[in-house]
Design a protein that fits this description.
heterodimer; A: 112 residues; five-stranded antiparallel sheet; B: 112 residues; mainly beta
């Protein structure tokens, strides 16, 4: 079953702008991860945030996690054309780190 | 180079003709998994394996089989493919104690 749901489904921004996407999930988790997928290729891991963390940074990426609201957000700052991709959140339930559930993804288009 | 490989990358077949999609990883990972990706549905887990000879069903296992006789290989078997199994398939692996999953490049399967 799909645990995570991303919002919005699609996002179009100008190069240099920030992109924000959200993920909501249903049951308690160990960790939440974000992945990027370029045009039908394999997914690439971006960042992981643990359930006891509230915010994490990696380069131009900032992830927040609110376990009380069962939601997370991914912010990409100063976007580039190369950031054009689909972004997925993935959660793993308590007691099973390896059983990831993915959302349907947010498709981000960065216009030059 | 650390990687997950899948073969074939593209396959067109007919209903009922048994097929196998191979997956191999060279990172000595214990955990491997198969997903299918369909438009609007994100990735759904088919089967996963915690180690050699240990496999378990994911969210959509019907119509699929897997085996894990060696640590590096995790083939996906469709005994009698049907058109509703037309999809993009991904294999992924991760090491014990880790969470980040490494994905293969994908196999696009069309069942006529």
């Amino acid at each position: 079953s799909q645990q995570g749901e991303e919002d919005p489904q699609a996002l179009s921004i100008q190069e240099g702008e920030n992109a924000t996407m959200n993920c909501s999930y249903k049951t308690s988790i160990n960790n939440l991860q974000w992945y990027r997928q370029n045009s039908g290729r394999g997914l690439v891991h971006l960042i992981l945030i643990r359930s006891n963390e509230r915010e994490k940074h990696s380069g131009r990426l900032r992830v927040t996690l609110d376990t009380s609201k069962k939601s997370s957000s991914l912010l990409i700052t100063a976007s580039r054309a190369a950031d054009t991709a689909s972004y997925f959140c993935a959660t793993d339930p308590l007691f099973n780190d390896y059983k990831l559930s993915f959302g349907a993804g947010t498709t981000v288009t960065v216009r030059a | 180079e650390a990687q997950v490989t899948q073969n074939p990358r593209y396959l067109i077949t007919v209903t009922g003709k048994k097929l196998t999609v191979t997956c191999s990883q060279n990172m000595n990972h214990e955990y491997m998994s198969w997903y299918r990706q369909d438009p609007g549905l994100g990735l759904r887990q088919i089967y996963y394996s915690m180690n050699v000879e240990v496999t378990d069903k994911g969210d959509v296992p019907e119509g699929y089989k897997v085996s894990r006789k060696e640590k590096r290989n995790f083939p996906l078997i469709l005994e009698s493919p049907s058109p509703n199994q037309t999809s993009l398939y991904f294999c992924a692996s991760t090491g014990q104690g880790a969470n980040e999953q490494f994905f293969g490049p994908g196999t696009r399967l069309t069942v006529l």
